[in-house]
Write the structure tokens for this entry.
Amino acid sequence: MEFDYKKELTKIPHQPGVYRYFDTEGNIIYVGKAKDLRNRVSSYFVKSNQHDRKTKRLVGQIRKIEITIVPTEFDALLLENTLIKKHQPRFNILLRDDKMYPFICVTNERFPRLLTMRRVDRKLGTFFGPYAQARVMYALLDMFRQLYTIRTCSLNLSPENIAADKFKVCLEYHIGNCKGPCEGFVLEEDYNREIEQVKLILKGNLTLPRRYFEEKMQEASTKLAFEDAQQWKEKLDLLGSFQSKSTVVNPNIADVDVFAIVSDEACAYLNFMKVLNGTITQSQTFEVKKKLDETDEDILTMWVWEMRDQYQSEAKEVLTNIPLSIDFKGIQNTVPQIGDKRKLLDMSLKNVLYFRKEKADRKVAEETAGNPKMRVLMTLKNDLQLKALPRHIECFDNSNIQGTNPVSAMVCFKDGFPSKKDYRHFIPKTVTGANDFATMHEVVSRRYSRVLDEQQPLPDLIIVDGGKGQLSAACDALKELELYGKVPVIGIAKRLEEIYFPEDPIPLYIDKKSESLKLIQRLRDEAHRFGITHHRDRRSKAFLVTELESVEGIGKITATKLLKHFKTLKNIREAQEDELITVLGKDKADKVRKYFEEVELK
């Protein structure tokens, strides 16, 4: 049945809210939010020719639309998040990692316990985490066992049960790990005081627990209970050791949440860092597979809400590398440019970039196992974020010395190796002197004009030896041929081996040990060698022509004709008289023979 979207659009108001798309079977296939519902929903149908393949597939399956109007765009975000979690539509990204990371739960029961759980149930108690690294969580639990005396049993320690003497202390009591609440040996308020300190440490606040241990140590010293004082000191030292291992960024920075996102066509990579009292207490990085053509702003905004909800964050400031698409109530969103907050954001970006590279390297290893050639090309593809494997690469270089005999060279690599039959030399026709930019424009234009005329395959990657200027000249030539955007093109600057992309002033620095950078350098060096060789040949030929012009009656045209036939001066000097006459005629042949006889006499 054909879906009459025009009729449906007339029913949708220009207000903020959430829209839901259903398929023929009545299943929700997509949930979205909008500041203006009518404009957003209509964009799927009116601009359908501008969508990518995945979005067109979604639109083709829509058979029903439902909307919910809400007061603000922020309320739309909350409702959208709830509906996505509930229905898990197949065209929505799900901001969940493959793994359920563990949490520490401080139970709600009388005389609370510390438990590790992977499923969050707020009815059971207060949850802290999740912990992306389980060893960090277990290190915390081990520290709590040394600092405090918290029970590990699961007994129901109600006042009635304790009063009825239902339980007896276990081994944990006798070895000093528990104070025996099961037999009423510890007051509930004293026990809960330790639990509150555990909660403070889990929140990243060590000030009050440290003060508590200091007071207890001082109190024991005053009473001359030196063994007790030593035990309190050891606990204080343990707490200090734990704090020294935490990543302290700046004690002047209050509680902030830090988020960074980078993405490619298929996935987004995100990092979250929770900062409390100037210390990074949590960090998590993961990958989100895109379902449609989602923007980084929308993905990050949804993810910020998800992480803050999961970590129960109360921070009033959120640092991000791009602005959020929605203003959160009571929260300031900052994109820092300088200072300590910028350093924090850079740390988050470094984490997410490392995570992306690690994922890409793992993928390359899996796809190219036992094939080093393909591994290098896959690494280059990932480093440059190319859509296709660069099996056919062409690299351009200009060569001239003090503006004389300028030449350009193009070398071609196929499957990572030189394809010398495809190498080309160019002598500039429209450029006078040493003008690298104009020469690059002419050479690239000539090369790909011929490729188009002869219907040859275009390369998968074009490399220009030079920085932004040469790259810009090559791009202008490609634009004139309507090839710009169809073939990836980069420039490599020699000074620091920076990789430049069109219309991007910030270069890419590939690891100096990377196989992909070494391949780019091989192409650049081969183009330089090939160009220099041709340049020297032209200079040598120019010298020989000048030498032959010293012969009376021999001009540039005749000298070039001689060199073309005999190749070298030695061959001309040793040539038979009949051969010289055939090429030059009797008169000029006699003059050439006479010239070389006089040179030998000198």
Remarks:
- Residues 538-546 have pLDDT under 50 and may be disordered.
- The first helix runs from residue 5 to 9.
- The chain has 20 helices and 20 strands.
